[in-house]
C-alpha cells in the first residue's frame, strides 16, 4: 500500500489524527516551543498500530494464503500486530522475551493471540519466532523489514505537516528504525525545513553504531526502554534511516527515568521510557538546539511496566 492509500486508510480511524499538544512548562524551561505528538492515544497505546494495519491490509489485498501470522516483539509491535490480526480474523502468535513488560503481554492475550515467552531479549525471541514460523509454514512479520511499517509510521509525519506548525526539529526515538524512516521520508518529501533528530539509549547502542558504520557485534541491549532495545539491527532498515536522518543522539540511560518523572510532574503524563528519551535527549544536548526553536517530540507509547512506577515517583526529574 502506498503512502497516500495508507494515509487515507488511517484517516478513517476514529483516533486519527492523534493529538499534537504544546507542553507549556517544558517549553518555558527550554525557552522554545515543545510540542508532543501523542501516539499513546491509539487503541494499542503506541504508534505501531498504523504500520500493523497497513501490513495486514497489504496481505489481505494480495490474497495471500494466511494460515497464521507470527511476530516477535518487546511488546508494542506485538500488540499492534495482534490487534490488526484480530480485526482480520487471522490467528496470531507473538514471541516475546522472558523479561517482557507484563502489562503489554496481558494486552496481547486479550486480543485472542497466543503469546510465547522465549529468549533472553527481543532478538533472541525473534530467532525463536522465525524458526517456529519456518517449521510451521506460517508468515513471519519482521518489523524493521516491512515496507508497511515504514509507510504506516509515515502517516505520523503527514499529520504533523498538516498541522501547519513550522517545526525546526522532530525528535524521534530509534528502535529498529521504522518510525524514524517513515516520519523522515514524509518530511523530506514535503521539502520541510525540519531536521530529523534520532535518539538512541546509551545502554542499547547497536543501532547508533550501525548507523555510524561501526562494529556493533557483541554489544548489549540492556536499556529500560524496551521498545528501543535492539541487539541485532535490520540492515535494510539501517540503510533507510541513513538517507533521512539529520543527526543521531546517543542519550544517557540514567536520564530516561528522570525524564519520565518530569513528564509526570509537568504534563501529568505517564510515558514509556522509549518516549521519555525525547526529553532526555534535549536535556543532555541542549546546546545543539537554539532557543526559540519549534520542536516536536514523538511520544511513541504509554504502556509503562507497573513495576517501574515506584522508581519513577522516587526519581528526581530533569526539569
Report on the architecture of this protein:
The chain is of the alpha/beta class. It has helices at residues 3-11, 24-30, 48-61, 76-87, 102-110, 122-136, 147-162, 178-189, 206-211, 235-242, 254-267, 273-284, 309-314, and strands at residues 20-22, 33-38, 69-72, 92-96, 114-117, 139-141, 169-173, 195-201, 247-251, 294-299. The chain folds into two domains: 3-43 and 152-314, Rossmann fold (3-Layer(aba) Sandwich), CATH 3.40.50; 48-145, Rossmann fold (3-Layer(aba) Sandwich). The chain is built from 13 helices and ten strands. Helix 5 (102-110) links the parallel strand 4 and strand 5. Helix 4 (76-87) runs parallel beside helix 5. The mean pLDDT is 96.
Amino acid at each position: 500500500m502506498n503512502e497516500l492509500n495508507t494515509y487515507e486508510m488511517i484517516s478513517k480511524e476514529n483516533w486519527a489524527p492523534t493529538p499534537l499538544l504544546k507542553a507549556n512548562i517544558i517549553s518555558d524551561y527550554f525557552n522554545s516551543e515543545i510540542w508532543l505528538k501523542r501516539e499513546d492515544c491509539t487503541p494499542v497505546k503506541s504508534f505501531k498500530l498504523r504500520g500493523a494495519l497497513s501490513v495486514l491490509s497489504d496481505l489481505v489485498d494480495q490474497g495471500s494464503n494466511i494460515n497464521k501470522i507470527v511476530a516477535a516483539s518487546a511488546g508494542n509491535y506485538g500488540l499492534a500486530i495482534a490487534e490488526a490480526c484480530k480485526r482480520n480474523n487471522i490467528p496470531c502468535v507473538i514471541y516475546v522475551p522472558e523479561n517482557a513488560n507484563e502489562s503489554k503481554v496481558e494486552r496481547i492475550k486479550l486480543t485472542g493471540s497466543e503469546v510465547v515467552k522465549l529468549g533472553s531479549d527481543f532478538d533472541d525471541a525473534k530467532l525463536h519466532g522465525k524458526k517456529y514460523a519456518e517449521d510451521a509454514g506460517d508468515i513471519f512479520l519482521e518489523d524493521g523489514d516491512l515496507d508497511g511499517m515504514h509507510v504506516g509510521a509515515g502517516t505520523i509525519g503527514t499529520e504533523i505537516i498538516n498541522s501547519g506548525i513550522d517545526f525546526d526539529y522532530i525528535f524521534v526515538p530509534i528502535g529498529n528504525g521504522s518510525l524514524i524512516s517513515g516520519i523522515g521520508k514524509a518530511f523530506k518529501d514535503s521539502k520541510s525545513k525540519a531536521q530529523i533528530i534520532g535518539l538512541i539509549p546509551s545502554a542499547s547502542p547497536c543501532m547508533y553504531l550501525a548507523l555510524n558504520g561501526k562494529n556493533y557485534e557483541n554489544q548489549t541491549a540492556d536499556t529500560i526502554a524496551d521498545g528501543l532495545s535492539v541487539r541485532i539491527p535490520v540492515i535494510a532498515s539501517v540503510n533507510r534511516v541513513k538517507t533521512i536522518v539529520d543527526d543521531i543522539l546517543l542519550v544517557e540511560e540514567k536520564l530516561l527515568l528522570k525524564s519520565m518523572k518530569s513528564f509526570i510532574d509537568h504534563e501529568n503524563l505517564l510515558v514509556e521510557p522509549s518516549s521519555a528519551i525525547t526529553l532526555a535527549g534535549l536535556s543532555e544536548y541542549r546546546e545543539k538546539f537554539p532557543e526559540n526553536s519549534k520542536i516536536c517530540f514523538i511520544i511513541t507509547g504509554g504502556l509503562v511496566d507497573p513495576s517501574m512506577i515506584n522508581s519513577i515517583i522516587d526519581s528526581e526529574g530533569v526539569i
